[in-house]
Structure formats: C-alpha cells, structure tokens
Amino acid sequence: MAIEKTDTLVIGAGQAGVAMSEHLSKLDVPHIVLERSRIAERWRSERWDSLVCNGPAWHDRFPGLAFDADPDAFVAKEQVADYFEAYARKFNAPIRTGVEVKKVTRNLGRPGFTVETSAGVFEAARVVAATGPFQKPVIPAVAPRDDRLLQIHSAQYRNPAQLPAGAVLVVGAGSSGVQIADELRRAGRKVYLSVGAHDRPPRAYRGRDFCWWLGVLGEWDAAAMKPGTEHVTIAVSGARGGETIDFRRLAHEGITLVGMTKAFDSGVVSFQPDLAANIARGDANYLALLDAADAYIARNGLDLPQEPEARRMLPDPDCLSNPVLELDLAAAGVSSIIWATGFTQDYSWLQVNAFDDKGKPQHQRGVSSEPGVYFVGLPWLTRRGSTFIWGVWHDAKLIADHIATQRKYAAYRDAGQRAQAAAAVPAEV
Ligand SMILES: Cc1cc2nc3c(=O)[nH]c(=O)nc-3n(C[C@H](O)[C@H](O)[C@H](O)COP(=O)(O)OP(=O)(O)OC[C@H]3O[C@@H](n4cnc5c(N)ncnc54)[C@H](O)[C@@H]3O)c2cc1C
C-alpha cells in the first residue's frame, strides 16, 4: 500500500484536534487529523446521558463560533459534539474519521515519523498527540472483588435505569461524582457519596458565573497548581440551569456523605475520618472566592448586586456531625459502586522518546522532549484552563506557531542552494 505523506499529523479529533487543525490551516501547514471514531466522540459515547456543560455557553466555546443557545445556558453534551462537528466543517478541516493510529515511530537516518494506522501507513515531519486528557478510567486498587456488586467507572455510567435495584455508593465527589450521586438520589435511590478534598466555587455570585470570576481573577491562567492541591478536585455543575455544589444541601436532601473510601473487607467498606475536614476545606475555598470577588468589585468600583445570603451555610447534617466510618454493604442494600475517580492517559502507541520514567509526557508547553512530537489538551499544559474548551484553543495556537517556526528553519536554503535551485528553473521566454 502507498505511504501517504503530510507535514503534520494530528491524532485525535476532539476539541484539541479541531483547534489544532484550525490554527495549522490558518498558517498554511499541510496536515491531516486522524480520528479513530467520530469528531468529539467522547462527548457522545463516554459521558452520561444527562450531562450538560459545566460552564455557560458564552464561556465554554472557541472564539470563532457561538453556540446556538442562550449565552448563559449550559448546553447538553450532544450539542457540544455537534458544535465541534460544525466548527470543523466551517474551515473544511482535513479530518479522517474511523482511522485508528496504532503505532508512531521516529524514522531512522532521515527526518520525520512513520505512523501505522488502521487505514495504512503515513509519514509526517511532525505528530501532535491530541488524544485527550481523560482517556483511561482509573479505578483504585481498593475496589473489592465481589460478584454481588455492579462496579462501573463514571465514564461507563449512563443513567439510573442502568443500575440494578438498590442503594449506590458513589466514590469521588468531583463534578462527575456529585452530579451522578444527585441524579441517582432524585431517581429515588439511596446514595452514599464518598467525599475527598475538593474546591467548590459558587455557581454564581453577585450576578456573575464562577467562570467569569475565575477569568477576571486570573485563576484560569494560573501557570501551575498550588503546592498541595494535586489531589484536590473541583465540584461544579451546570445541571438544572446550574447550581452551587453544596454538600450540606445534598445531605439534607437524602444523600449520606462519607469520608474518603479506605478499604473493603468481607463485605464491609470503611471510610477515612476526614469528611468534616474535606467539607471545611471546600467551604474555605467557596468563601475565599466570595472574598476575592468582593475585593475585585470594590477595587474596580463595579455596580454588582450585593448577595449576603451567599455566605449563609445550612446546618450540619447528621452524617457530617456523626460520620459513618464503616458500612456493611449487604445490610445497607448497596448493589452498585460507581467509581468517579478520574482518568489517566495511554500513549502506548506513541513509541518515541517523549516520556519520563513514569511514562508521563515530558514537554514544555506542549513541545515534547522528542523533536517533532507535540501534546495538546493535557492538564496544565500551559495553564489551569488547558483541558477546557476555551483553554485548549489557545494552547493549540502556541503549538501551531511553534510548528510554523520550525518549518521556516527547515525551508531555509543557503546561497549555494538558492543559486542551484534558480539554475534548475528554466528561464522565462
Ligand atoms: C465528564 C466530563 C465533563 C466535562 N465537561 C466540560 C465542560 O463542561 N467544559 C469544558 O470546557 N470541559 C469539560 N470537560 C473537559 C474536556 O473538555 C473534555 O475532557 C474533552 O473531551 C477533552 O477534549 P480533547 O480533544 O482534549 O480530548 P478527547 O475529547 O478525549 O478527544 C480525543 C480524541 O482522540 C481520539 N483518539 C484516541 N486515541 C486515538 C488513536 N490511537 N487514533 C486515533 N484517534 C484516537 C478519541 O477517539 C477522541 O475522539 C469535561 C470532561 C469530562 C470527563
């Protein structure tokens, strides 16, 4: 089979791959995007049915196209996928769907890479890995081996009807865990929610969404995680028009909050005695954002409505004052566990020198330690916003600029080469 050649091969056509293609197109860099499934597939088939964006439509988008929705609405996941398809059509992105990249290796003794795919072999001077920040579901080693329990990761959860009758333990209280727990409780399930360290910004404060606040306060642009926050998740939701994640409210509505899941032993799950500390940490994060917002309003003399009720906390629910430290799963009627415990990445197909000894991508702002290999869409690639829709677009621009600059060096010809090239061109008559 003939080998197809291009300058830059982008692997993956989620938001990161589409953004890459837009910037490469603007810079006239010949490229092809290979996507094993459909454009923005993860939004279609790897998220639960009722998921809506965590940020409002005016915010969670690329600069070049608005959602066909109220700017303050939280659009549904299918609409997000449709948006990226429409976006790709807008500039005729050279995306080939249904093509899986199996192996990328550096060419020996000549530049570029050989890329083996389900649709033949490609050669490219550069490759951009845009295969996602959240690729492989992680289920911690404490998960019990117990055939009586249905255990799934949040990436496999679709809706309450998918689970057998009975109570559910949801492990992990980031945005996925809290939204799934709330949906199950609303569907009439008894729910236990295992809560770790989290941030929980107010959905909105003094008339502005938290996405706006994090933007004007410079938090989306933070270049690195604050030390000690590596295991802190963020609990936000756009469900039902958007609401603040308030763990006390969830508990008063019927969810039993528990601390971090510690171990399973003979059908009994134990929890760390850290629930109160985790809730207090989340409260402190919530109040700190209100303080920062108030200070910003005062400093800039903004006319935004006062909202003193935002500082009122509900009384502590019983599960917070007297935390459950052990639960006999059968006695509590728990038939399912949902692990909302995050994701990792899988680059086994990318067989180049771009990883550290733990297998993590080694890069500076997406430019990897293997010349010609780039990453886009990874957490904290350049800033806190890097995995999000609006952030990845800016990161893709930086990488496309780097590629265009490298092409300029590669195209340079010295005086002798220029003379030779001129002599080879037949003179015009
Ligand atoms: C539950 C959830 C909710 C989220 N909500 C929001 C939100 O509201 N707002 C927001 O800004 N962000 C949100 N995010 C974060 C982020 O926007 C998404 O994770 C987004 O899918 C990341 O886009 P991506 O293009 O980087 O990666 P992905 O969407 O993962 O795209 C990677 C693509 O690469 C393809 N691929 C992988 N391997 C190969 C291969 N070997 N060959 C060919 N193709 C391959 C995959 O099929 C996939 O289509 C959310 C994330 C999750 C998990």
Description:
It is a single chain. This protein has 429 residues and is α/β, with parallel strands linked by helices. It folds into two domains: 3-135 and 345-415, FAD/NAD(P)-binding domain; 138-339, FAD/NAD(P)-binding domain, CATH 3.50.50. Helix content is 28%, strand content 21%. Strands 1, 2, 3, 4, 5, 6 and 23 form a seven-stranded mixed β-sheet that branches. The chain has a five-stranded parallel β-sheet with strand order 8-19-9-10-15. The chain has a three-stranded antiparallel β-sheet with strand order 16-17-18, with no helix packed on it. The longest helix is centred in the last third of the chain and has 26 residues, at 275-300. It is globular, with a radius of gyration of 25 Å. The structure holds flavin-adenine dinucleotide.
Describe this protein with a few key phrases.
single chain, 429 residues, alpha/beta, FAD/NAD(P)-binding domain, 2 domains, seven-stranded mixed β-sheet, five-stranded parallel β-sheet, 10 helices, 23 strands, 21% strand, globular, binds flavin-adenine dinucleotide, EC 1.14.13.-
Beta fraction of the residues? 15-25%
In the CATH hierarchy, the third-tier topology of the largest domain is known as FAD/NAD(P)-binding domain
What's the number of extended β-strand segments? Answer: 23
Overall form: globular
Number of domains: 2
CA distance, first residue to last residue: 42 Å
Give unreliable regions as ranges. Answer: none
Mean pLDDT score: 97
Bound molecules: flavin-adenine dinucleotide
CATH class (first level) name of the largest domain: Alpha Beta
